Structure prediction request, 530 residues.
Amino acid sequence: MDIRLRRNYWIIILIIVSISSTLYFFGDEMIIPYTTDSGYVTKMTRFNIENNVDLFSENMIHEIDVDMDWDDYESLLKTYEETGEKDYFKTDITIDGVTVEDVGIRLKGQLTLQTTFQGSNQMDSMQLPFLVKFDEYVDGQCYQGITELCIRIGSSYALLEEPLALYTHSISGAVVPEWAYASVKISELDPAYYVICENIDESYLINYFDDYEGVLYKAGNSVTFAYKGEDQTEYMEDFEQKTKKNEEDFAPFIAFLKFIDESSDDEFEEQLGDWVDIDALITMMAVNDLVENSDSFSGMNSNYYLYYDQRTEKFLILAWDMNLAFGAMMGQGDMQRGGAFGNMDDRGNNTGIPPGDMQEMNMENMINFTPTEGMNMNASMMQQDNKSKFTPPDGDFGNLTRPERMSEIGDMPDMGDMAGGNFPGEMQGYGNLGEGVERGEMNSQNSAENALKDRFFANENFSALYKERYEEIANGIYCNDLLLEKLDLIAETFTEYNSEYSIMDQETYDSEVEDMRNYIEEKQAENCDD
Prediction:
């Protein structure tokens, strides 16, 4: 060996050990370049915390422990209760045995969160939805390639609706967040059952799109796609720019709205494909209709993002937040689920027992709920007067709730001009299919007002494309056993975990699984000839 090499051998060993230690503790480091309008090149460094357990493995119940100080937890609740603000708090989080230090956690959601607060008299003990932000306090920190993790509740105890809806979108070719189930312990509360999924943010774009440097916009509730002129401030109440805030603005989106508003019928048909991915738009709307996800772009004009690809100069509409799918919006799900409205012990921990008589009281609370100052809630959701008995019309219900649950709805508030579709032949409500309109067809009177949808379905050729794609997707998701097999896998995984840890009443869970199974089988009979 060369004498110089022998003399410095220990230095080489030290360097190797140092590099190995760095990789072990910090995981992969990904350098992502992007260019601003001025040509200035910056770099974003991501320190990726790894785990040998895939965060979104669906064949297990993940375990998450949020080591949040109880005083911080109470402050988090009090801040929201008094101001409507969802502030971040610093904490450590352990996911499947791996601890990530100094992450941010805050409440997440709008209607679900507000309804949960209104329905409980124990503000410090409710099962609530959260957002974990891994890089809130440590720049560049992420976990398994994501910077934000949603911890979500839903419309039932078993939380079947959103995962099955996301799965249905995925097998139909749409880009949707990955998901899994988790037992989540928040501060001193007992573990509770949640859905976890990716949040749609910059890291989501990086993970799913070749051109991740585009502009991401998040739609508010019940927005109408109306062109309001060139003043960008006119759009900030309805849409929020989520990426490239200091580099881009609303200009591409405003130009799109102007095209929708001012183009002739011929121009709209010929040029719409230059502005938006038409196939993705049709797929997203058709799947929403097929899984009765009315709280969506297809129905109430809610829960979606727009991604502007600067390379193709086209928009892609991304579906999001599906916990009211499978008819849950109008009574299929309990809305007063588990820890949010269920029976609790003296510390407020969820017992997993259905709330029973509490359901009726909490539905009344939801109807008569008045938002506190600082809460941004669409006033149209707050109709209180003129309650009337709703009798469903004969024939095809279209995009409504499960037929066997209609009798449980009882007295319904008059929705008036509430954003949404309509019950066939009845009031403006939640469906996309009107009286005399075949399944797979749609027109401007059958969903909440939206200039893009109105013009799209007023066009004969686009309507025909929608119907064709609707029938194709219906065949792909219902004329086989894919959904039933996914449901069985979810139920088997939960039951095995629950037999050891007892995080929910098993009979309640089994009942909701059977209810979902009946729904899928009815859809199979409805959509398939064989």
